[in-house]
Amino acid sequence: MRLLKLATCNLNQWAMDFNCNLKHIKESITEAKQAGAVIRLGPELEVTGYGCEDHFLELDTVTHSWECLKEILVGDWTDGILCSIGMPVLKGSERYNCQILCMNRKILMIRPKMWLANDGNYRELRWFTAWKHRDQLHDFVLPPDISEAISQKSVPFGYGFIQFQDTAVAAEVCEELFTPVRPHDELALNGVEVFMNASGSHHQLRKLDIRLEAFMGATTRGGVYMYSNHQGCDGGRLYYDGCSAIVVNGEVIAQGSQFSLKDVELVVAQVDLDAVASLRGFTSSFQEQASCKTSVPSVAAPYSLCQPFNLKATLSSPMKINYHCPEEEIAFGPGCWLWDYLRRSGASGYLLPLSGGADSSSVAAIVGCMCQLVVKEIANGDEQVKADAMRIGHYTDGQFPTDSKELAKRIFYTVYMGTENSSDATRTRAKVLADEIGSWHLNVSIDGVVSAFLSLFQTLTGKRPCYKVDGGSNIENLGLQNIQARIRMVLAFMLASLLPWVHNKPGFYLVLGSSNVDEGLRGYLTKYDCSSADINPIGSISKMDLRSFLKWAAKHLGYSSLAEIEAAPPTAELEPIRSNYSQLDEVDMGMTYEELSVYGRLRKIYRLGPVSMFKACFLFHFLYQEITPFRYNTLTTEVSVVMLQNLCFRWGSTLTPSEVAEKVKHFFKYYSINRHKMTVLTPSYHAESYSPEDNRFDLRQFLYNVRWPYQFRKIDKLVEEVNGDKVAFEEGSQEGKSGGMGVVAAGAGDPKAGL
């Protein structure tokens, strides 16, 4: 037997906070050594934090990284343990994203990343160069102060592996695992048994299985795969969701948490490398390909890592993989992100305009979940969480949070800002939910402020606008709604800055936004209303997922009033309520939230323009056959396909091609009219693959020809070709039957309804 004890970790790093990051790296190495590990793997760019972005272009960032590495190397941190540490390195005039492989106070090898992540949220090619020399290792001259400190002038630099006396180890950095030609396949044929993947992978709903399947697939023909990831908010919209793991021969034997408030979480396992050699020797095709492999450069290390057979040694066994359901992901991911943001921002708490509707209630429940997580972690003995909570909550005399509702009372304000258009039902729901969570709640009427604005307008112009139900025009109706919405934003920020002063508390509160991804996509929000805030934990989560979350949270978080909130029809309550009229979101938008989710996925994930979207919406089988073989995220695709199937079959049994065309045109018209709102969208937790957030994820113009003349003309021509006035499926036919999804508001099937 060749016994090898390994340690990987989740680290909660903070971009550009070198003190914080170095502290966590040292803690993880110390814990790994205490556990008896001889290999310690940390996440990608752990010295700087992954999210430094354009700070990577600064020479100081590279210099400080070497200074931190020097501190590790001159101490006893690497004595007897191979440490893989991620940081940027300048070689000549090129900047590389590197793993520094260190042991016994020496640098054994520097491995630059060969394939850079450059899509979605990632822009690595903006900051780094991909290493392109695969055939040989280069000699890298170390910076003078490093060279002097460790008595080493140069180090091998490039693609290769380290050959120890009893095994071979190599790095594979994040994105390289997901490329068509993956380094670990070639390295395995060259005898590498242990692969170390340092990653900076963010959370996205229903994404984790793709990652874990890749680890397992990398070792099904024999091998040990170590994976390390960041965990937490390191300064931006992303939450890195940990889940560090160790896989042997295709089976997970150790897995870290996906969501946690811990700064350092170690994952340790003991493996027998003879099991790897045995499986490879058993696989004939592996033997044949290894016999004619392309040689990969290597570095010889005069050390042994393995231990011989030991009666007291216990091998790590295959375990059941821990997956969270999407509702749990919505609770724990944004909850942990909010805690990181709060403790690092210097704020004393959060303020939320709580309308009693589904979106703001979802945000309130997530903050309540955050408070529950904090209290639970303190009870588990986490001193850092305890210290942060005592500081933020202004606890004195050694007191600390023991009850989530009591903590919420200290750090969470909720405000119901009602008008004459608000209902008693939403006012009551907001109050009940606030009581369940424990927030400090205000019930405010803003009618006086609205009236003052209207009086000022009347003084200036001699006119006073009226609502549509009272005989006003669409322009008047929209203007009156926007006044209410924007006053709420101003009042929210005023309360967030002054309420702590009123209550003799130091600091300030951060305002939370509560618009969802579908409303952002459609532009169904007022520019600079309560969608404008400091941060938004649900800005990249769909309405349908939020409704499922509310039902889950009513039961599992203990906020039972959420069940009633979920069941209520979504309404902005910005227009007067009449016996024959009640404002509904889906009627205002001219489309259901279910339809919006499908439009969003087709537009972003499948990259369909107006013409292709019309074809997809009407000809479902074409879409299914074309995209399914190439799907990247299996779970997300299956959800999208089922949603699209239900939607199209429902449309096909009731709508003509021309009516389907009008729906698609209606979406693109209002998407393009409102695209400018995305330029000021509140920074939002990234959770959904069709987010319209234009800062980095969805890079498109914000000034469109909203008539789309060329594209819409093509759609009209297609409608003519397929007999556009005839319903596609006979009523009651098998093709037209659908289980249905979501709640369709009255009139939402008509694109012109409510407009």
Automatic annotation (TrEMBL):
CDD domains: GAT_Gln-NAD-synth (cd07570), NAD_synthase (cd00553)
EC primary class: ligase
SUPFAM superfamilies assigned to the protein according to its UniProt record, in alphabetical order: Adenine nucleotide alpha hydrolases-like (SSF52402), Carbon-nitrogen hydrolase (SSF56317)
Gene3D superfamilies on file: Carbon-nitrogen hydrolase, HUPs
Record's GO cellular component terms: cytoplasm
Keyword ATP-binding attached: yes
Gene Ontology BP term (one): NAD+ biosynthetic process
Region listing for Disordered, in residue ranges: 730-755
Known EC number: 6.3.5.1
Key words, A-Z: ATP-binding, Ligase, NAD, Nucleotide-binding
Domain CN hydrolase: residue ranges: 4-273
InterPro entries: C-N_Hydrolase (IPR003010), C-N_Hydrolase_sf (IPR036526), Gln-dep_NAD_synthase (IPR014445), NAD/GMP_synthase (IPR022310), NAD_synthase (IPR003694), Rossmann-like_a/b/a_fold (IPR014729)
Source taxon at top rank: Eukaryota
Family, as annotated: In the C-terminal section; belongs to the NAD synthetase family.
Record protein name field: Glutamine-dependent NAD(+) synthetase
